[in-house]
Amino acid sequence: MGRVTTRRPVLRVSADSTRTRPDTLAAEEPLEIRVNGRPLTVTMRTPGSDVELAHGFLLTEGVINDKAQLLTARYCDSPGPDGRNTYNVLDIQLADGVALPDTSVERNFYTTSSCGVCGKAALDAVVLSTHYPPADDPVRISAETVFALPDRLREAQRVFQSTGGLHAAGLFDSDGEVLVVREDVGRHNAVDKVLGWALLNGRIPLTGCVLMVSGRASFELVQKAAMSGIPVLTAVSAPSSLAVELAEDQGMTLVGFLRGRSMNIYTGQHRIHPVG
C-alpha cells in the first residue's frame, strides 16, 4: 500500500537563519479505477481507503446504490520501477445485472485532486438522479451542535496535523457524534471515502446525518451528498452559486463559513435550531 506521507528535505529560511531540515508532505499518487476490467477514471489521491473511495465514487456516479451490487474490489498488477506493485490500479467487479457506467456523455475521466466536476464536458451534462431525496428528511439539529463540528473534525485529522496539506470530510449524527472522518489531497476524494465507508457498512441512505468538509462547498460535493441521502452539508468556507442552487433544489440544508460561533445558512434553514 502506498504511503500517506513522505519526507523531503526543505530549506527553511527565516529572518535570522537558514537551515536544511526534513519536512513531512502529504502523499499524492494516481489511482485508476476499472470496472469489470475496463478503465473508468483516474484520480489523484492520498493512498489509503482506496476501496472506500471507489465505492463512494460509484455510488455518487449513480452506478450502484447498495454494496451487494459490487462483488469484488482488488488491486491489479501495476509494477513500479523496482518490480513491486504500486497499488495504484483497482478493479471493481459488478454483480450480474448491474449496468456498466454510462459513457455516452463525453467526459474527461482524468480527475485532478483539486476538482472533479470540471472534468465534465459541460455543466448541463451533469445529471443528478438520487434514490434518497434529502428533502424528505425531517431531522433537526441545534446550532450549538453545528458550531462544534469544525473542532471535532480537526481533532480527527491525524495526517493534517503533520502535513497541513490535506482536506477532510467527516460524517456526524444529529447529536454531533463522529461516525467517520477521512482525509485526502482532494476534497472530493475525502467525501467519496466517507460515503464509501457508509455504503460498505450498510448505512446508505444517510438519513439524519451531517457531512462536514474542511474547505469550500462546491456543486460536486452537494451532488455527492444528495446522492447519499444526506440532509445537511456544512463547510468551513464558501459555497458556490451552483452549490446553493442544487442544495435548494434537492431540499438540503447548506451551511457555509462555519467558523467559531457563526455560520451562514444558505438553504434549509428549518433544520437548524437557533441559539437560545
Number of beta-strand segments: 15
CATH architecture heading of the largest domain:
3-Layer(aba) Sandwich
**What is the count of structural domains?**
2
The number of helical elements comes to 6
In helices, the fraction of residues equals 10-25%
Q: Which strand-content bin applies to the residues?
A: 25-35%
CATH level-1 class of the largest domain: Alpha Beta
**Taking all residues together, what is the mean pLDDT?**
86
CATH superfamily of the largest domain: Cytidine Deaminase, domain 2
Question: Cα-atom Rg, whole angstroms?
Answer: 19 Å
Poorly predicted parts: 104-110, 115-127
Biggest beta sheet summary: 6 strands, mixed
Distance between the termini: 49 Å
Shape: flat
Query: Which class of secondary structure composition applies to the elements?
Result: alpha/beta
**CATH overall fold name of the largest domain:** Cytidine Deaminase, domain 2
Q: Reading side by side through the largest sheet, how are the strands ordered?
A: 10-9-11-12-13-14
Helix/strand order, N-terminal first: EEEEHEEEEHHEEHEHEHEEE
What characteristics describe this protein?
276 residues, alpha/beta, Ubiquitin-like (UB roll), Cytidine Deaminase, domain 2, six-stranded mixed β-sheet, five-stranded mixed β-sheet, cytoplasm, Sulfur carrier protein FdhD, FdhD, sulfurtransferase activity, Cytidine_deaminase-like
Q: What can you see in these coordinates?
A:
Helix 1 crosses helix 4 and helix 5 packs parallel to helix 6. This protein has 2 domains: 91 residues, Ubiquitin-like (UB roll) (Roll); 133 residues, Cytidine Deaminase, domain 2 (3-Layer(aba) Sandwich). It has 276 residues and is an alpha/beta fold. It is flat and about 60 Å long. It is built from 6 helices and 15 strands. Helix content is 23%, strand content 31%. The strands form 4 sheets. It has a 6-stranded mixed beta sheet with strand order 10-9-11-12-13-14, sandwiched between helices. Strands 5-6-3-4-7 form a 5-stranded mixed beta sheet, covered by helices on one side. One of its GO terms (molecular function) is sulfur carrier activity.
